[in-house]
Design goal:
Elements: E1 3-7, E2 10-13, E3 18-25, E4 33-39, E5 46-51, E6 58-60, E7 68-73, E8 78-83, E9 92-100, E10 103-106, E11 110-115
Parallel strand pairs: 2-11
Antiparallel strand pairs: 1-3, 3-8, 4-5, 4-9, 5-6, 7-8, 9-10, 9-11
């Protein structure tokens, strides 16, 4: 199994950048598809970005394309979300997610607040 811990959230002004990290425990990290989701107050949790096990394939929500970059370091068991040109509407709790077959694991989330 994998356990996930997110970090890197915080308060940033509009137009600024943040890099979120997701640290995974467990010895099968490289076999998991990893993703980032976010949930704003009163809204459903929504997909942001995903990356396959090798890092060769990445996927983005339309809202993230061109501004966010997902990457992973299998040796260090880390997944990153580089967020640039942040907007107030990016304010949310950001969650790391791991998928392998029918198993899904979530982290506890990290708060990102973008001020206007």
């Amino acid at each position: 199994q994998v356990q996930l811990v997110e970090s890197g959230g915080g308060l940033v002004q509009a137009g600024g950048s943040l890099r979120l990290s997701c640290a995974a425990s467990g010895d099968t990290f490289s076999r998991w598809t990893m993703g980032w989701f976010r949930q704003a107050p009163g809204q459903e949790r929504e997909f942001v970005a995903a990356i396959n096990w090798s890092g060769d394939n990445t996927y983005y929500a339309d809202s993230a394309k061109g501004r966010f970059t997902i990457s992973r370091d299998n040796a260090e068991k880390l997944v990153y979300l580089q967020m640039n040109s942040l907007k107030p509407e990016d304010t949310a709790v950001y969650y790391c997610k791991a998928d392998r077959g029918s198993v899904t694991i979530w982290g506890q989330g990290t708060q990102v607040t973008v001020s206007s």
